[in-house]
């Protein structure tokens, strides 16, 4: 479905990013693994190229830095002739991210929302300019079910985990930015959509998994690979007239 397309995945060497990059390469795309951790990106590119020859390449990128984003766009276009899509998947945060609500300081809240939501804005802005000048493209933003619903704090009972207040503000903001950019650029051939997953399995405590899964349908906590079909659809010509939308993939958790 993606033969000949060049797709940039920010945060491409992370838990979700790795699944995305593999799926995109399998679908025929040239995958640009954009990462601050260039060593991890290069290792993933080598692994993917052993399976999908010539389908993956690693680039350094920091979504909180405009010069880094524009350098990525310039290098990718120079090397591959064009860029067809961006998957906004990076997850920048400081070391104090994720504290309980009453322990979050103003400075940390502002820094984390600035890095994550601000970074998504900056990536969208610079890629939108590129896609407008190119005559089209697709952006897929990674949001979350917690961008559209209140936290279910009961699933965290008995654990040290919580649903960070910064995360809620960031993911809700990403959804509105998605609509804003889609409206702004819909006449320019640029499609902007969001993918909102439920929880992704990553060695969470058994008590949390049991409580979480009780709200779900058939599977419960998802694997990152469960998101890839929706991602490919949003980047492909099968969704040519889909823009400004948010697709939730959560096995019914948010119902």
Condensed summary:
The chain has helices spanning 15-26, 38-51, 66-80, 106-134, 165-185, 206-213, 228-235, and strands at 6-10, 30-35, 56-60, 85-88, 137-142, 190-197, 246-249.
Describe it for me?
This protein is of the alpha/beta class and 255 residues long. The protein is 42% helix and 15% strand. It contains seven helices and seven strands. It has helices at residues 15-26, 38-51, 66-80, 106-134, 165-185, 206-213, 228-235, and strands spanning 6-10, 30-35, 56-60, 85-88, 137-142, 190-197, 246-249. A seven-stranded parallel sheet has the order 3-2-1-4-5-6-7, with helices on both faces. Helix 4 links the parallel strand 4 (85-88) and strand 5. Helix 1 crosses helix 7. It is globular and about 50 Å long.
Task: Please supply descriptive tags for the structure shown above.
single chain, 255 residues, alpha/beta, 7-stranded parallel sheet, 42% helix, globular
Give a topology summary.
Elements: E1 6-10, H1 15-26, E2 30-35, H2 38-51, E3 56-60, H3 66-80, E4 85-88, H4 106-134, E5 137-142, H5 165-185, E6 190-197, H6 206-213, H7 228-235, E7 246-249
Parallel strand pairs: 1-2, 1-4, 2-3, 4-5, 5-6, 6-7
Helix pairs in contact: 1-7, 3-4, 4-5
């Amino acid at each position: 479905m993606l033969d000949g397309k060049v797709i940039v995945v920010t945060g491409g060497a992370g838990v979700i990013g790795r699944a995305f990059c593999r799926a995109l390469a399998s679908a025929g795309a040239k995958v640009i693994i954009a990462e601050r951790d260039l060593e991890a990106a290069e290792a993933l590119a080598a692994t993917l190229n052993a399976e999908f020859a010539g389908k993956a390449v690693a680039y350094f990128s920091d979504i909180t830095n405009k010069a880094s984003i524009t350098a990525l766009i310039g290098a990718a276009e120079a090397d591959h002739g064009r860029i067809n899509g961006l998957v906004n998947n990076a997850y920048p945060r400081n070391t104090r991210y994720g504290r309980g609500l009453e322990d979050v300081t103003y400075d940390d809240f502002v820094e984390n929302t600035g890095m994550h939501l601000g970074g998504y804005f900056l990536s969208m802005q610079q890629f939108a300019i590129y896609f407008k000048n190119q005559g089209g493209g697709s952006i897929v933003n990674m949001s979350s079910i917690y961008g559209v619903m209140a936290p279910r704090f009961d699933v965290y009972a008995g654990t040290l985990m919580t649903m960070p207040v910064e995360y809620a503000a960031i993911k809700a903001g990403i959804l509105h930015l998605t609509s804003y950019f889609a409206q702004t650029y819909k006449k320019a051939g640029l499609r902007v959509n969001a993918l909102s997953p439920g929880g992704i399995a990553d060695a969470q405590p058994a008590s949390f998994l049991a409580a979480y899964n009780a709200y779900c349908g058939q599977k419960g906590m998802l694997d990152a690979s469960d998101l890839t079909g929706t991602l490919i659809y949003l980047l492909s010509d099968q969704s040519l007239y889909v823009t400004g939308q948010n697709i939730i993939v959560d096995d019914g958790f948010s119902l």
